[in-house]
Every structure is written in structure tokens, then in C-alpha cells.
Amino acid sequence: MSAASDGLPPLREVIDRHGLAPKKSLGQNFLLDLNLTGRIARQALPLDACTVVEVGPGPGGLTRALLAEGARKVVAIEKDERCLAALEEIAAHYPGRLDIQKADALSVDLAALAEGKPIKIVANLPYNVGTQLLLNWLTSETWPPLWESLTLMFQKEVAQRIVAAPGSDHYGRLGVLAGWRARSQILFDVSPSAFTPPPKVTSSIVQLRPNPEPEPADLKALERVTAAAFGQRRKMLRQSLKSLGGEALLTKAGIEPTRRAETLSVGEFVRIANTL
Ligand code: SAM
Known about the structure:
Layout: H1 11-18, E1 30-31, H2 34-42, E2 51-55, H3 61-68, E3 73-78, H4 84-93, E4 98-102, H5 110-113, E5 119-124, H6 127-138, E6 147-155, H7 156-163, H8 173-181, E7 182-190, E8 195-196, E9 203-210, H9 219-231, H10 237-240, H11 246-253, H12 266-275
Parallel strand pairs: 2-3, 2-5, 3-4, 5-6
Antiparallel strand pairs: 1-8, 6-9, 7-9
The structure holds S-adenosylmethionine.
């Protein structure tokens, strides 16, 4: 069954009936095309052996798609109280399969949601907190993490930074962190016209899966190194990493001090962090 034929009312009607005029402050750009939300949900299949966590269900377009595509259990975390009644209608249509939590996703503990099953996170993220949420999921203290995949909507420019490889203009702190701990790819772009209201920029669906055995590194050291290196990305590393040991640190790590941040592989950043 697809969400378009799930027997629930069209999303426009839901939005009107519950007075869900989108709020910019909550990053609300809704997807009303259930064929598109179905396409997003299918990227995370299979959904029947895990707990699906959705951040920001809003009026429930993606939520409906996840359930129609066979999700055993969806935990939907929504900050906007106005959306709860609309989401309750979906929960009633799929008894026992949708758990609605009114909360700020930034302070939700994934372990409490897992029910002993692996987690898949699928979300059309609010842009104002999307990057921070991704950083939280990538910097989990336990690794491999509780999540087995992340299927997320980002602004295209952020998506490019997540999947960026060395040498690319988009390569930076986010790319190193994501490249260290995960395998990521852009699955497809979504044009502004797919959203209500349309954002200014194109969006992309990104999927990340945990790297089961990232090279051991101290996360704080890695963050210090990448922050310094990309803080002055056009400078040679002996200059940009001066406060961390500069040339001596780089030589000890076996990295040519005249190189620039964007030429270093993730493994080389890890080596500098471990030397530090
Ligand atoms: N999933 C819906 C869709 O695709 O149409 C809505 C996506 S909209 C881009 C982002 C949603 O996240 C909104 O419903 C918003 O209220 C919610 N939201 C914003 N900040 C949040 C936070 N910190 N925690 C949980 N939900 C949040």
C-alpha cells in the first residue's frame, strides 16, 4: 500500500482542519506529495525489523509513508504542539505502530526509544537544527551507534559538505567527521517547489550508514585539528595548525607541513589527531 492510498485525508485538508500554517521559526517546510514521501521512505527499507525514528513529523506526510511502507514502529518526535492532534489521527489508523512524542529532538536520548531493536532515522529535518542533530548522531560515545541508517533531507549545500571527499571545495569539518564514522551518499535532490512553503534552495536526501570500525581516534582531538585546519583552509598546515604544534606535530605525524587542509584524507586527519 502507498501513503497516497492509505485512506487518510489529503494533507492539505489536514493542515487546514488543524490550523497548521507553517512557522518559519520551527523550520516548517512541509512535503504534501505522498508519492515523494513514499519515495523517501522506500530508501530506508526494510522497515519491519527496526524502530524508525522520525524527527519533526509535522502534519505527517513522511510518517504516513513510513507506515504505509511497512514500518513496524515509528517514534515521531515533534516540538510543535499544534501538530499533535493531526498525528493522533494517523496513530489511530495504524494501531500500536505510531508513538508520538512531544519533545525537542536535540534533547532526546535514542537509547530510550530503541526497544532493543536497531534504529533507522528518517526525517525531513528542520533546517535550523539539522546539522546539530547529525553531529549528535555522528559523535555518539558508543560505536557502532544505536542507529543503523540515517535517511535525511538537508539543504543541498549541507548534503554536499557531508559527502565531500578530499580535494572538493565542500570538504571540511563535517566531511571529515562523516567520512571517519560513516559511509554517506546523496540519493536524490528535491526541488524547492516540492515544499510548502518553498525554501530558497534545493534540498537533497542523504543516507548515512555507520562505518563499523572507524580508525580509533580521540573525537575532541580530531575536532580541534579539523577546526584549526579548516579555519584557515587556504593556508599551509604548518601555519593553520601552529597553535597545536605546527611543523613539529605534522612531521611527527608524517604529514608534509606545506600541505593544505583540503588535500588531507580522513585517515591523515586521524593520524594528526592521534599524534596530538
Ligand atoms: N516531516 C514533515 C514533512 O516532511 O512535511 C515536516 C518537516 S519540517 C521541514 C520540520 C519539522 O520539524 C516541523 O514539523 C517542525 O515543527 C519540527 N521541529 C522543528 N524543530 C524541532 C525540534 N527541535 N525537535 C523536534 N521537532 C522539531
